[in-house]
Amino acid sequence: MKDTTSAKIDYLIERYPALNVCRQSLTQAVEAIIESYRQGGKLIVCGNGGSASDSEHIVGELMKGFVKKRPVTDELYAKMQAVCPNEADYLRDNLQMPLPAISLMNAVALNSAFANDQAPDLAMAQQVLGLARPEDIFIGISTSGNSANVIYAIQMAKTLGTKTIGLIGNRHCRMQNLCDIVIAAPEMETYKIQELHLPIYHMLCIAVENEFFDK
């Protein structure tokens, strides 16, 4: 990890001192996501309610430029020129290099069909079964740490050899002993946990972006 990347963790804790208790797990999470991307992996995220929105938010920050510019590479631009020479400049000037990420919350047709035909609490696990690979990272977000559908998805990810990160609150819960890395926001009430989850995952996105797009 670059020094400028680890500095993003320091800056988060400087702004939110209560998160100092999470420093080790935050560092582990950043390192794990970076390693996944180096191996050609992707990030898979899920949660319920406000955490479903957080899942979508994370994907939005990773799949396009967040705080840094992510220009199209010269190699990709050359391929664009070969395929569509008239549009290559427009594509190059406006597209941004992504960090691949998927939220399991936007597959409305699949989730509703599976919930109707099979088992509602396994809809996300079904997606994990179809999408997850050993080089990927799975993030499950749950303020209680006991959301059944998130837990089933984590279990499926671990079955497939995918490293798992749990973003939870400061409560005794099943996800504490299930996830490979646990980031427990030091709050008990749901809205307060969510208020800390946002700067945590913003930092994760900023740190990983910095690692790959530092110039």
Describe the protein:
A five-stranded parallel beta sheet has the order 2-1-3-4-5, sandwiched between helices. The mean pLDDT is 97. The protein has two domains: 3-63 and 98-212, Glucose-6-phosphate isomerase like protein, domain 1 (Rossmann fold, 3-Layer(aba) Sandwich); 68-97. The protein has 215 residues and is of the alpha/beta class. α2 (23-38) packs across α10 (190-212) and α6 packs across α7 (123-131). The chain has helices at residues 3-15, 23-38, 50-62, 74-83, 88-94, 108-117, 123-131, 148-159, 175-178, 190-212, and strands spanning 43-47, 101-103, 137-141, 163-169, 181-185. β4, α9 and β5 form a beta-alpha-beta unit.
